[in-house]
Write a structure and sequence with these properties.
The structure is a homotetramer of 350-residue chains. By secondary structure, chain A is of the alpha/beta class. Chain A is 29% helix and 22% strand. Chain A has a seven-stranded parallel beta sheet. A seven-stranded mixed beta sheet of chain A has the order 9-10-8-11-14-13-12. Chain A starts with a strand and ends in a 15-residue tail after the last helix. Chain A folds into two domains: 162 residues, 3-Layer(aba) Sandwich (Rossmann fold), CATH 3.40.50; 164 residues, Dihydrodipicolinate Reductase, domain 2 (2-Layer Sandwich).
C-alpha cells in the first residue's frame, strides 16, 4: 500500500507499549518498524509479552539504535521526566518527524504550571509550546496540524470529555466539581512495587494521590479554558481490583436555569456523530466493563434527588482511549487516515 | 456460665445470617439456640454454608417453629418490608424479647420519611417509635435501654461515623456533602440475579441507585439531626469487584474558620477510646482490605489542594461493622456484655 | 462485496452469542442479518449487551420470525437438548443452509454414547451422522464439506488439540491420561444461579462434575479414534475466579522409547504453519492470560523429574477458540474464506 | 495467667509473620514479646501492616536485638537458606528454646535430599536430625517432644493429609499419584516482583515450577515413608487469581480390591475426632473458600467413572493451616496447650 507508514514505539516493554503493538497489528496503514526497551534490548517482543508468540515483530533495541530515517512517526511510551529530553533529541535529528507522546511531559502548556506540579523546570520549552493537547474529539484541528501531540492522562481524558462541554455552555458551577475516578491496576504500569502486588490490591480499594494527583493539573488547564475563568475541581482517584477501566463519578452543581436533562442534551449534541463516544439515554448508568479493551467511551447523566445537582458518569479503558488507543486515534488524525482505523473493536465482555 | 443467653437468628441462609453465626461461635456468652430459613427449613446449616461442617448447630427451621420462651434475643436478618410484621408478631408473643434488626424497616424514625422512601405506609408504627438507631458509637445510651435496635445500613454507617461529629461541631457545610461509596458484592445478598453473576461484575465497576439509593434517607436523618437543620448530601454508590468492604470518599466544604487539620482533630477526639475506630494520622489514606473480615473502622482526613475543602475517607467491612458485627456489638451493649466481646479479630489481610 | 454472506445468530442474548457478534463485526465478508433471543425478542442488542451501543444491528427476534431465505449460514448458540429439534427444523425449511452449532447436540457420533451421556435418545439421528466434529485444525477437510458442524466443547478443544497428535503417534499411554482443566466463569453462561454469583465464586476454587463431566465423552471419542483403541482419561474440571480462559494440565505417561522432547517435537511439527496454535519452546509454560480475548492457543510440554512422565499444558479462551472464535473459524473453512479472517486479534493483556 | 508464654516472631514484615500476629492476638496463653524485620527495624507493626492500627505491639527490631532470655518460643518466618544459620545461632544462645520454623530448611530429614533439592549442603546437620516434621495430625507425638519443629510447605500439607493414610493402608498405587495443586498469590510472599503484580496474575492462570517444585521433595519423603517403598508422584502447582487457598486435586489409581468408598471410609476413620479436618460425605467436593482465613481442612473423595481410579480433593488456607495456623497448632502441642486454642475461627465466607 502506497501510504503505509513506518512507526517506532519507544518503551515497548511496558503496558502502553504492548497495547500499541496489539492495536497497530490490526491497522492497515502502519508498519511497526522499531521497538525500543533499553533494559530489555536484544530480546524478542514475545519474550517480554508472550501474547505475541508467532507474530513477526522487530527485536527490542535501544533508543540510540533506531534508524530515524526510516521512521515516519514515533509513539513515545517512556516515563515522565526523561521523555522531554528524548523527544527533543529526536526532533534535532529529524525535524519532520511526527511524535505522539504518551507521557505527561508536554500536556501542560504553561511552564509555571509544569514546574509547580512536576517540581522542576521544563527542559524543552519550545516543544512544550507547540505540542497539541490530545483529547481528540475536543482538539481535532490542532492535532491535525501538529508534529508533537501530548496524549492526555487517562483520568484526565475520562473527566474532560463530559465536563468541558458543560463548562463551555455555562451549565454547571466551575467552582464546585467533585470528581471521584476509580481506576484499574494496569494504569500503574509494570514496575515491580510492593504496593502493586496482587495480594496488596485484590479484594479491597483505596484512594491515592488524594488532594495532589498530577492529573488534576490537566483538569485545571482544560476546565479553566472551557469556563473562561478559574475553576475548582476536587479530584480523588481510587484504585480498585481490576485490570482495565476508569470510571469517573462527577458530581456537579447546576448553574441557574440548567437542569440535568439539559446537561444530557448538551453532551448528546456535542458528541453526535463521534464514532467513539456513546451518550447513554438520560438516567442510564454506564459500566466500565462495556468499554473494556476498546477505544469507546460511555457517558451517562443522572439527576440527583434535589433540583440543583446532577451526577455525570464517564468510563473508558485506561490503556485504550486513556492511552494507546487515543494515541492511535491521534496518529490517524495527524496522518490523515480515517479516524477509526485500527480501533473498531468493541469491548471484550464478559 | 450463668449469663449465657440464648439467641435466634432469623434468615440464617443469607450472608448476614451466616456472618452472625461465624461471629457468635466465638462469643463466650451466647448460645445459638435457633436458626430459621423458611425455604431451606429442615436442612443442616453446613449444607447451606459448608464452612460450618463439623460445628454443632441447630437445624434450620421456619420462624413459626421457634420456641420463643427459650430465646432471649433475636437477630432478624430478613428482607426489608416483611420484617416489620415478623417483629411485631414476636413482641406480641414475648414482650420482654430483645431484637436487633438488620433490615431497613425500623431505621427511619419519621413515618412520612419511611413512606416516601419505601413506597408504602409503615405497618408497625408503635415499634418504629421505640426503635433505637444502631450506630453504636453515636447512640450507645439509647441502644442500651432499647428492646428493638435498628441496625443501620452498611453505606450509612460508613458515612455517618465520620460526618456526624463534623456536622455537630459545625466544621463543614451541611449543604455540600458529596459521598461516593464503593462497595463489594456481598452487600447485595445471595439471591440469584443475572446482574450479580461473576461474569457480570468482575473486571469492571458501575454506579447503582444513583440519585435515589435508600441509604440516602438514613444519611439525611442523621445529618439533619447533627447539623440542626436540613442538610444536603449527594450520595452515589459504586459496585466494585470484591466481596467485602465499603469505602466512602466524602468531599466536604469547610465552614468558615475550619481547616482539614481541625476536622482530623475532632474525629480523633470523638473516637479516642473507641475500641473499633481508628483515626489514621492526618493525611493518611485508609484501605478497605485492612478492615476486611473485622468489626474495625478506619478513618482518614486529607486536605484538598485548595484551602476550602477536605476529603474524609471511611472504610469498614459491610458484613461485619456494616451489618452482623455491629449487630453483635449492639447485642453486647443491650445485654451489658463487654462491648468488644466476640469482635476482637483483626482484619484478614492479605 | 460480492461474497458477503448473511448470517443469523440463534441465542444472541447469551455470552457465546454476544461473542459471535463481537467477532463478526470485524469480519469483512459477513453481514449479521438476524439475531434471535426468544425471551428478549423485541429488544435492541445494545439493551442486552451495552457494549454494542451505537452499532447498527438487527433487533432481537424469535426463531420463528427468521426469514431463512435471506440467510446463508446459522450460528446456533442455544442450550443443549433443544438444539437438535431446532436445527432439524431449519434444514427442513432450507436444505442448503450451513449451520455451525455451538451446543453439545451433534458432537457425539455414536447414538448410544449420546444416550449414555445425555440421558435420552437423540432426536435427529440422520443429522447426527452427517455432522462434522469441529476442532478445525484436526478435521479441516470434513468441516469444509459439511453443512452441519458440531463445534466442540471448550474443555474438549483444549485437551484434544495437544493430546490427539500424541496418541496418533503412539507416544503416550492411552490408559493413563490425567486431565485437570481449570476454567473461568463465562463458560457457565448467563443464567442466574446462586452458585455463579460473584460472592460464591470469587476468592476461591472448586472442582465440579468430578468423574462425570459430559466433555469427557468428547475426549473419549477423539482419544479412542486417535489411539485406535479404548483410551482412559480421567478428567477433572476446576472453576477458578476469572472470566475467560481454560487451562488444561495433562499428565501423561510416556510410551516405551518416547521422551518429553519427542512429544514437544511432534506437537511442533503437527502445528507448524497453523496460524492459531503456538507451541512454546520445550519446557516453557503457557499462561491463559496470553490468549485472553483471542482465538489463539498456546501449548507447552515439560518433562517431569522422572523419565516416564511429562506434563502437557494447553490454554485457550473458552469464549473464542473454545466456542465462538472456533465457530467463526469453521465458518471460514466451510465458506472458503481465508481461515484467519475476523480472528486476527491478539490477546488483550493485561 | 501463670502459663502465659513469651514468643518472638522473626520475619514479622512478611505475610506469614503478620498472620502469626493476627492469630496470636486471639490466643489466651501467648504474649507477643518481640517482632523482628531486619530491613524495617524501628518501624511500628501498624506502619507495615495497617490492620494492626491501635493494637499494642512491640516495635520491629533486628534479630540481633532480641533478648532471648525473655523468650520461650520463637516462630521463624524467614527466607529459606538463611534460616538454618539463624536458628543454629538461637540454640547456641539458649538451648532450652522452642522453635517453630516456617521455612523449608528443616523439612527434609536426609542431608542428601536437602542438597539435591536446594543445591547446597545443609549448614546445621545436627539440628536437621532432631527437627520434627510438623504435619500436626500425622506426627503429633514427635512434635510434642521436639524443641525444633519444621512446619511443612503449604502444598505439602494439603496433599500429605489425604494421601498418607491411603498409602499406609495400601489402598492406592504409590507409583501413580498425580497432584495438581492450585494456589492463591499470598503464598508467593511480599517481595516486589514483576510476575506477582496484580496485572500479571489477575484474570488468568498458569503452572509454575513444573516438574521440579521443591515441595515435591516433601511429598516424596512422606509418601515413601507411608508406603514403605519408593513412591512416584507427579506434582504440578497452578497459580490462580485469588489471595488465599490451596486446592489439591489428586488423581489416584486404586490398589487391587480397593474402592473409592473404601478410601473415603479410611479418611473418615483416620480423621474422626480431629478438630481441624472435615471429611465431606462421599462424592461431595470441597471448595477452598469454605476454609478461607481458618485453620480448617476439607477433604473429599469422588469415584471416577471407571472402577480403578478416584479423585481425592483437599483444601486449606495456605497462610493458616498451610503456614502460620499450623505453626500455632504445633506451638500448642509442644507447649501442652489445648490444640485448638487461638485457632477456633471458622472461614470468612463470603
Amino acid at each position: 500500500m502506497a501510504d503505509l507508514i513506518n512507526v517506532a514505539i519507544l518503551g515497548a516493554s511496558g503496558y502502553t507499549g504492548s497495547e500499541l503493538v496489539r492495536l497497530l497489528l490490526r491497522h492497515p496503514r502502519v508498519k511497526i518498524a522499531a521497538l525500543t526497551a533499553d533494559r530489555k534490548a536484544g530480546q524478542a517482543m514475545a519474550d517480554v509479552f508472550p501474547q505475541f508468540a508467532g507474530v513477526e515483530l522487530p527485536r527490542l533495541i535501544t533508543i540510540a539504535e533506531i534508524d530515524l530515517d526510516a521512521i515516519d512517526l514515533v509513539f513515545c511510551a517512556l516515563p515522565h521526566g526523561t521523555t522531554q529530553g528524548v523527544i527533543a533529541g529526536l526532533f534535532e535529528k529529524k525535524q519532520t518527524l511526527k511524535v505522539v507522546d504518551l507521557s505527561a511531559d508536554f500536556r501542560l502548556a504553561d511552564p509555571a504550571d509544569y514546574e509547580t506540579w512536576y517540581g522542576h523546570p521544563h527542559q524543552a520549552l519550545e516543544l512544550q509550546k507547540e505540542a497539541a493537547f490530545g483529547v481528540t474529539e475536543l482538539n481535532r484541528d490542532a492535532i491535525a496540524g501538529a508534529r508533537l501531540i501530548a496524549n492526555p492522562g487517562c483520568h484526565s481524558t475520562t473527566s474532560i470529555l463530559p465536563i468541558v462541554p458543560l463548562l463551555r455552555e455555562k451549565l454547571i458551577d466551575p467552582d464546585n466539581i467533585v470528581v471521584v475516578s476509580a481506576t484499574g491496576m494496569s494504569g500503574a504500569g509494570r514496575a515491580a512495587k510492593e504496593e502493586m502486588l496482587f495480594s496488596e490490591v485484590s479484594e479491597g480499594v483505596h484512594a491515592y494521590g488524594v488532594g495532589k494527583h498530577r492529573h488534576t493539573s490537566e483538569l485545571d488547564q482544560e476546565f479553566d479554558k472551557a469556563s473562561g475563568r478559574l475553576s475548582r475541581a476536587t479530584f480523588t482517584p481510587l484504585l480498585i481490583p481490576m485490570n482495565r477501566g476508569i470510571y469517573a463519578t462527577v458530581t456537579v452543581t447546576l448553574a441557574a436555569g440548567a437542569t440535568a436533562e439539559k446537561l444530557h442534551e448538551t453532551l448528546t449534541e456535542t458528541y453526535a456523530g463521534e464514532p467513539f463516544i456513546a451518550v447513554l439515554p438520560f438516567g442510564k448508568v454506564p459500566q466500565s466493563r462495556h468499554v473494556r479493551g476498546s477505544n469507546f467511551v460511555q457517558l451517562g447523566v443522572v439527576a440527583d434527588r434535589g433540583p440543583d445537582r446532577a451526577i455525570v458518569i464517564s468510563t473508558l479503558d485506561n490503556l485504550v482511549k486513556g492511552a494507546s488507543g487515543q494515541a492511535v486515534q491521534n496518529m490517524n488524525v495527524v496522518c490523515g487516515f480515517p479516524e477509526t482505523e485500527g480501533l473498531e473493536s468493541r469491548a471484550v465482555f464478559p
